[in-house]
Design brief:
Strands 1-2-3-4 form a four-stranded mixed beta sheet. Strand 1 and strand 2 form a beta hairpin. The termini are far apart. It has about 220 residues and is α+β, with helices and mostly antiparallel strands. The chain is globular, with a radius of gyration of 17 Å. Helices cover about 55% and strands about 10% of the residues. The chain has one domain: Hypothetical protein af1432 (Orthogonal Bundle), CATH 1.10.3210.10.
Length: about 220
């Protein structure tokens, strides 16, 4: 049977590594990377491929890759994409995934992080878009940090985020509502410009144009 998101989501081992990876990032002072983040990424990645006309099997692989993409943080933040891909290789064999399915998923995980990212296949492109557009206030763990941590300040300033896909127009756009009393638009770009450029490349892989709209103004 084809690999399903449900099988991976119900894996005790996978969920344990997600929790432990998030504990590591909490200790390091990073924003939330818990089950909430990876589940949102899984749903979004599958939706992107569904709306762009991909098969149900490919949608499932995208959801699986998105759900598992951050497990490498349990080892170390540095190189977590590559270590996570190696962990996923073993975990997916444990749930009966085929070599072809494993190859697609580990390629996506191994290429999702900014430093070494590239949309090598459509599943990777969907994962990149889902991961990099998950910007929201609830990912900030400690409101006190927004005064000195620009990453937390930018996330906390986002009041609403909506990833809109318009296939007939050939567009996928992230619409953000930002409280500019907390974070200026220039600060958003200071932190997220490289991520938005990566989203543009991922969108191009899916034959779409990526757009960024902040407070009703088109930025990209």
């Amino acid at each position: 049977m084809p690999l399903t998101f449900e099988a991976v989501k119900n894996s005790e081992a996978v969920n344990t590594y997600i929790r432990r990876a998030d504990e590591t990032l909490l200790a390091l002072g990073y924003t939330e990377h818990s089950v909430a983040h990876v589940t949102k990424c899984a749903v979004t990645a599958a939706r992107i491929l569904r709306e762009t006309g991909h098969s149900e099997d490919i949608q499932q692989l995208a959801a699986v890759a998105a759900y598992m993409h951050d497990i490498g943080n349990v080892i170390n933040r540095t190189g977590h994409a590559q270590s996570g891909a190696l962990m996923a290789f073993d975990l997916l064999r444990g749930v009966g995934a085929t070599p072809d399915e494993i190859g697609t998923v580990v390629a996506a995980i191994g290429h999702h992080d900014e430093g070494t990212a590239f949309p090598v296949n459509d599943v990777t492109a969907a994962l990149i878009l889902a991961d990099k557009t998950d910007v929201r206030r609830t990912r900030v763990r400690n409101r006190d940090t927004i005064t000195f941590d620009i990453h937390d300040r930018v996330n906390y300033a986002v009041q609403k985020a909506d990833l809109q896909i318009n296939v007939p127009a050939g567009e996928i756009a992230l619409h953000l509502t930002i409280d500019t009393q907390i974070c200026s638009i220039s600060e958003y770009f200071e932190i997220f410009l490289s991520r938005m450029i990566l989203c543009r490349r991922a969108a191009e892989r899916l034959k779409l144009k990526f757009g960024l709209v902040i407070n009703g103004q088109g930025m990209m």
